[in-house]
Amino acid sequence: MAPKNRELRATGASAALLSLCLLAPTAAHAVDGCLVLLCFAAPSWQSIPQCVPPIRQVLRDLARGKAFPTCGMSGAGNSARHAWARAPRNCPPQYTRVHEAESGPIYTCDYTGAISVTIDGKQFTRTWWDMGGDTVTDFSPVAKSQLGIWDTRYDEDRAAWLRSRP
């Protein structure tokens, strides 16, 4: 076989293989932990179009028992981590419910878990989430001073809860 024919066949085979690769379904990519860290530290991740899909995916993954993503490039003192909500200890009081039972009070939390973001070694945000994908974020005083504006739902819920107490 002539060298030119071999090159044509090799080129044709490469093109066919490339076409098959492009048409084949690709595996789902894991959520970018660095993007998730930035989005959870934002004043309102819901208002940033680039944040909505990865945050929704992380919440679905957590609800299914998958691990929280990590960011290897975040640098010292910057991280995000997940913890399950456990009322009354690990649940804000405005979202803690008490149900009386024969054996004593049973505590539940309106939220399933919390994602804590630490920036420069200090608590920055804590986002509470539920299985339906609803979230509310507690912004630390440090976060509030740096951001200037933030989603105030957590603060409003807490103020309403405090007003309702005897």
Show the helix and strand layout.
Blueprint: H1 3-23, H2 33-40, H3 52-63, E1 79-84, E2 96-101, E3 104-109, E4 113-119, E5 122-129, E6 135-139, H4 141-147, H5 153-164
Fold and architecture overview:
The longest helix has 21 residues, at 3-23. The model is unreliable at 3-29 (pLDDT under 50). The protein has 5 helices and 6 strands. The chain has one domain (31-164). The protein is an alpha+beta fold. 36% of the residues lie in helices and 23% in strands. The strands form 2 sheets. It has a 4-stranded antiparallel sheet. A two-stranded antiparallel ribbon has the order 2-3.
What is the gist of this entry?
The protein is of the alpha+beta class and 166 residues long. Helix content is 36%, strand content 23%. The N and C termini lie far apart (94 Å).
Total domain units: 1
The run of helices and strands is: HHHEEEEEEHH
Question: What is the CA-CA span between the terminal residues?
Answer: 94 Å
Helix content: 25-40%
Shape: globular
Order of strands side by side in the largest beta sheet?
1-4-5-6
Mean pLDDT: 84
Percent of residues in β-strands:
15-25%
